[in-house]
Amino acid sequence: MDKINRRSALAVTGAGLTAALAGVSASVAATAEPQPSPIMGLFREWEAKYAQTSDPAPSDEEVDRILDECRELERRMLAIPASSAGDFAAKLLAITSYGQYSLEDDAGGSFMAEARALAGVEAAAERLNT
């Protein structure tokens, strides 16, 4: 039977450590740039589109067309349940145009229902409405 000495133990440990670190490095590299959620992807599209409304001197017709496209992106965002606070915030920013407008059209109440569900106050809100 071979004796385990310090040198052989370090060699095995070093190889094991190197393999483990390689696995961790690959894992970190794979998660370093997570894919945006569907809502965040739509929000980034909305941001780019909305920014076009303040491009130098767009015509009224062009602004109307851009805003129609923004509203379609908003509708698509609202149809997807938020999976994080960031998703919910993105929806709020889009449907209020960065807070410039109030939340008048609540997509049939679905946005506030989602807010209550995310905050865990659905039952309390229902009691207030009865």
| Helix count, DSSP H or I runs of 4 or more residues | 6
Whole-number count of domains: 2
| Range of helix content | 55-70%
Biggest sheet details? none
Structural class category: mainly alpha
Q: Unreliable stretches, pLDDT < 50, 5 or more residues?
A: none
C-alpha Rg (nearest Å): 25 Å
Broad shape: flat
Order of helices and strands: HHHHHH
What fraction of residues sit in β-strands?
Answer: under 5%
| Rounded mean pLDDT score | 78
List keywords for this structure.
130 residues, mainly alpha, 6 helices, 0% strand, 67% helix, 2 domains, single chain, flat
3D architecture notes:
The chain is mainly alpha-helical and 130 residues long. It folds into 2 domains: 1-34; 38-128, no CATH class. The protein is built from 6 helices and no strands. It has helices at residues 6-31, 38-51, 60-78, 85-95, 110-119, 122-128. α2 (38-51) packs antiparallel against α3 (60-78) and α2 packs parallel to α4 (85-95). The relative contact order is 0.08.
Topology summary:
Elements: H1 6-31, H2 38-51, H3 60-78, H4 85-95, H5 110-119, H6 122-128
Helix pairs in contact: 2-3, 2-4
